[in-house]
Specification:
alpha/beta, Rossmann fold
């Protein structure tokens, strides 16, 4: 733990800044987070609910944890930071086993010392869905530089897709994601909170250093030398080459406000 021992007990020393990033996955958070973690003043703790002991809890319908366990886990990670700036990520589905709503959790983060909020989105949610399903099929979520991801072909059941603890139609999943993103945006823009909005398409896809520099500027730090150590997992392939029943996906989104995602 980062702290000093006084009269037989440990006094925690809080980081100067605590940053929480919320996203829905498959949006470049790993590559940008890894760049930030190479900074001498920033500890990027990644997705703290995917650390050992939490993945099984989240993925299993048989096991549930209590709200206080998840919140205390977050607070312990903050207290254990060995750098001036502590940062971590979470996805909305991480909150399901805790029984905590999105805004409630963000508020608890703030009460626990969070000073900066980042929202990283992927505009083309269809692309995110495909990437998630492929990663779950492969059982490989990230590839390092030099590794070549295989083309993984699969079917998408547009009337019922299952990603983490979410089971819904493709359109319902997209709508739910957009509703949650609106909630996040409204929270971050209120009460003078310090918030940064980024997207995969604008800040990561072509050059992850764009996102890296934006976060450094947001935190008032000069970017330091860093190297990209992760590569794209599915974005190198066309969606229609991955999805075997592409015509079903087209039929599900045609005529909806999400139709543009078919060519994005």
């Amino acid at each position: 733990m980062n702290g000093r021992r006084v009269a037989g007990r440990i006094c925690s020393i809080m980081p100067r800044s605590v940053v929480v990033e919320v996203h829905h996955g498959r949006c470049g958070s790993t590559v940008v987070g890894d760049l930030l973690d190479q900074h001498s003043k920033i500890h990027w703790d990644s997705e703290i609910y995917y650390l050992p002991g939490w993945m099984d809890t989240i993925m299993s319908k048989q096991r549930r944890t209590f709200e206080r366990d998840g919140i205390e886990h977050m607070r312990e990670r903050i207290r254990a930071s060995k750098k001036e700036i502590y940062s971590f990520e979470f996805q909305p589905h991480n909150l399901v086993p805790m029984g905590v709503e999105m805004i409630e959790y963000l508020t608890l983060c703030e009460e626990s010392g969070t000073s900066h909020f980042i929202h990283l989105s992927r505009k083309n949610i269809l692309r995110k869905v495909i990437s998630s399903l492929v990663a779950m099929e492969r059982k490989v979520f990230h590839y390092k530089i030099g590794e070549t991801p295989p083309l993984t072909r699969m079917k998408i059941h547009t009337d019922h897709i299952y990603i983490k603890d979410t089971g819904s139609s493709l359109v319902e999943y997209i709508e739910q994601t957009l509703r949650q993103e609106k909630e996040i945006s409204e929270f971050m823009r209120s009460k003078g909170r310090r918030g940064l909005f980024m997207s995969y398409e604008d800040d990561v896809e072509k050059n992850p250093f764009v996102g890296y520099r934006k976060v450094c500027e947001f935190l008032g730090e000069e970017p330091e030398k860093a190297e990209i150590r992760f590569s794209k997992a599915t974005a190198i392939f066309r969606m229609e080459d991955i999805v075997e029943n592409w015509n079903d996906v087209v039929a599900a989104l045609m005529g909806t406000r999400h139709e543009w995602m078919l060519i994005g």
